[in-house]
Amino acid sequence: QVQLVESGGGLAQPGGSLRLSCAASGFTFSSYAMSWYRQAPGKERELVAAIASAGGSTNYADSMKGRFTISKDNAKNTVYLQMNSLKPGDTAVYYCNARRIVVVFGKPHEYDYWGQGTQVTVSS
Fold first, then answer.
1. CA quadruple 64, 60, 77, 114: dihedral sign
2. Rounded to an integer, what distance in angstroms lies between the CA atom of residue 57 and that of residue 59?
3. For a tag on the chain, would you pick the N or C end, based on fewer CB atoms within 10 A?
4. CA of 44: how far to CAs of 40, 41, 67, 82, 92, in Å?
5. Are 83 and 91 spatial neighbours (Cβ–Cβ below 8 Å)?
6. Chain segment 11-26, per-residue pLDDT in tens
7. DSSP H helical segments within the chain, as ranges?
8. 46 CB-near residues (< 8 Å, 6+ apart)
């Protein structure tokens, strides 16, 4: 059974920091690219950061560059999101995502899993 369990959310003050964790089980974690998304009330879900399956290449949304850091520990089946210099606009539910595309006889098959989300609130 595939599970992605986020933790580490909560209330932070502007300028503060939080570290989110996503513990994965039920699939070959090291074969999956991992991402963090977020969704604020009344807004669409947006990509925050992504990291390649081996944990090397990373990608960030422009508004998170320099403030957020994504990392992946394949030995612990866990992906992290370190969030610094938090702003009220960072308030959202943060979701962990695992994705893998396997090509079989030229046809791509996508495997896509989501966690249940963790609330991050930035307020004084």
1. positive
2. 7
3. N
4. 7, 8, 21, 22, 11
5. no
6. 999 999 999 999 999 9
7. none
8. 37, 38, 39, 61
Q: What is the rounded CA–CA span in Å between residue 54 and residue 26?
A: 18
Could you give the CA distance from residue 108 to residue 40 in angstroms, rounded to a whole number? 32
Best CA proximity match to 94, nearest among 68, 112, 120, 71 = 120
Cβ within 8 Å of residue 122, ≥6 positions away:
11, 12, 13, 14, 16, 86, 87, 88, 89, 90, 91
Q: Rounded to whole angstroms, how far apart are CA atoms 10 and 105?
A: 45
Residues 36, 74: Cα–Cα separation, whole Å:
16
